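Hi V.,

You were right to ask for the full record rather than a summary. Here it is.
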Amino acid sequence: MADNDDSNYPIGYKKPPRDTQFKPGQSGNAKGRPIGVKNFATVIEKELRTSIEVTENGKRKRISKREAVVKQTVNKAANGDPKATAILLNEARFHESQNPPPVAPSAHASPEDQMVMDNMLRRIRQSDPPDPTPVESGPDPDPVGDDPPDQTPQSNEGEQLQWRP
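Predicted structure:
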């Protein structure tokens, strides 16, 4: 760019004329973003933090605008507004996934309860679990197993399969 010989300078793709190029020390946005201008999210957050005075149950009190929006949405959902209900359920689902509820303490109230539960678990583990496979009489007519369980499938030889519940 320091070369003043413009006759040999090619003009074309990614090579604008020298007189339209930025001069050293200058940019395309000379003024730039003014100092102190806030972005949209900052402005919304500031507005939601401001407090307003509301009357609730006959008493006046100050709450944030965010709290007022939540109260109004919950009240509309409770009155049957489907849009407010959808918004409220989506927010609740989002916050539950972000903050899972704490694990409840053990429901056993005493050592006797714990002993009963241990005995029940021991008996369950000792018992034989039922076999979920069908009882067949002959070769498997349906190796894929796509027959619905509420129907008794027929084999190729005319034999019937019996399903255990």
